[in-house]
Amino acid sequence: MNLYNKYNNIPKNLLLKVKNKSGRNNGKITVRHKGGGNKFIYTNIDLFNNNYDSSLAIIIKFYLDYSRTSIIALILLLNGILKGCKKLIISTRNLKIGNIISFKSKFPLKLGSVRFLSQFPIGYTIHSIEILPGSGAKISRSLGTKSKIIYHTSKYTCIEVPSGQIKLINNKCLATMGQNSNMYRIRLRKAGHKRELNIRPTVRGIAMNPVDHPHGGGCGHSSVGLKSSKTPWGKYHYGVKTTKFKKFNKIIFNKYI
């Protein structure tokens, strides 16, 4: 079976065969519950919108991507140095084949248009947002996600991200107008589907022996026997902060609303 048949009409330089590492680095397991999935091709998505002087593109075709939940779109640049080049982008909801999207402010603001944050009116819905100028889209890339413009300042734009956080992001960061595509994700119908997605079974700690997990041991259906649940390495599982807010406190205006 030729894996490229699924992505017909896409240039080969936008496709990359990925070797399954099964969650291992130099032979040591670094990510648990990985391995045994189907072979797949990684699609090289343009998250930077680096189109030089190209300002218009047309939607050619849509694809379901293995390596992400949202739908991707194949676009053809219509002008500039890269005229005639094809690229893959994260699609916007309600976009159709033949629609024109723009990358510069001299064109009307339509669905799928890419602009600086300062060029979006207050209250507009956006997705695929950069955190730093030129860093590539980082926020609202998953299926059906969206962020909302709250207000602008001279240097920053305040947005509400899908988690409910309020963030201040540089006005020169790029974003795409609209909501992310693929509102309704296909549910897995059997256990074998998860195995095909490179996900192996997860064993409960309470079903293990004491030597393997802090929850292990006991007779019958015994409880954990601890004040709080723990990870296999003895660290507390709940109530522990995992985000280094010192690193991101410059862009987080309010933790949650």
UniProtKB/TrEMBL annotation:
<dbReference type="InterPro" id="IPR014722">
    <property type="entry name" value="Rib_uL2_dom2"/>
</dbReference>
<protein>
    <submittedName>
        <fullName>Ribosomal protein L2</fullName>
    </submittedName>
</protein>
<dbReference type="Pfam" id="PF00181">
    <property type="entry name" value="Ribosomal_L2_N"/>
</dbReference>
<dbReference type="InterPro" id="IPR022666">
    <property type="entry name" value="Ribosomal_uL2_RNA-bd_dom"/>
</dbReference>
<dbReference type="GO" id="GO:0005762">
    <property type="term" value="C:mitochondrial large ribosomal subunit"/>
</dbReference>
<dbReference type="InterPro" id="IPR012340">
    <property type="entry name" value="NA-bd_OB-fold"/>
</dbReference>
<dbReference type="GO" id="GO:0003723">
    <property type="term" value="F:RNA binding"/>
</dbReference>
<dbReference type="GO" id="GO:0016740">
    <property type="term" value="F:transferase activity"/>
</dbReference>
<dbReference type="InterPro" id="IPR022671">
    <property type="entry name" value="Ribosomal_uL2_CS"/>
</dbReference>
<dbReference type="InterPro" id="IPR014726">
    <property type="entry name" value="Ribosomal_uL2_dom3"/>
</dbReference>
<dbReference type="Pfam" id="PF03947">
    <property type="entry name" value="Ribosomal_L2_C"/>
</dbReference>
<keyword id="KW-0689">Ribosomal protein</keyword>
<dbReference type="InterPro" id="IPR005880">
    <property type="entry name" value="Ribosomal_uL2_bac/org-type"/>
</dbReference>
<feature type="domain" description="Large ribosomal subunit protein uL2 C-terminal">
    <location>
        <begin position="109"/>
        <end position="236"/>
    </location>
</feature>
<dbReference type="GO" id="GO:0032543">
    <property type="term" value="P:mitochondrial translation"/>
</dbReference>
<feature type="domain" description="Large ribosomal subunit protein uL2 RNA-binding">
    <location>
        <begin position="23"/>
        <end position="103"/>
    </location>
</feature>
<dbReference type="InterPro" id="IPR008991">
    <property type="entry name" value="Translation_prot_SH3-like_sf"/>
</dbReference>
<comment type="similarity">
    <text>Belongs to the universal ribosomal protein uL2 family.</text>
</comment>
<dbReference type="GO" id="GO:0003735">
    <property type="term" value="F:structural constituent of ribosome"/>
</dbReference>
<dbReference type="InterPro" id="IPR002171">
    <property type="entry name" value="Ribosomal_uL2"/>
</dbReference>
<dbReference type="InterPro" id="IPR022669">
    <property type="entry name" value="Ribosomal_uL2_C"/>
</dbReference>
<keyword id="KW-0687">Ribonucleoprotein</keyword>
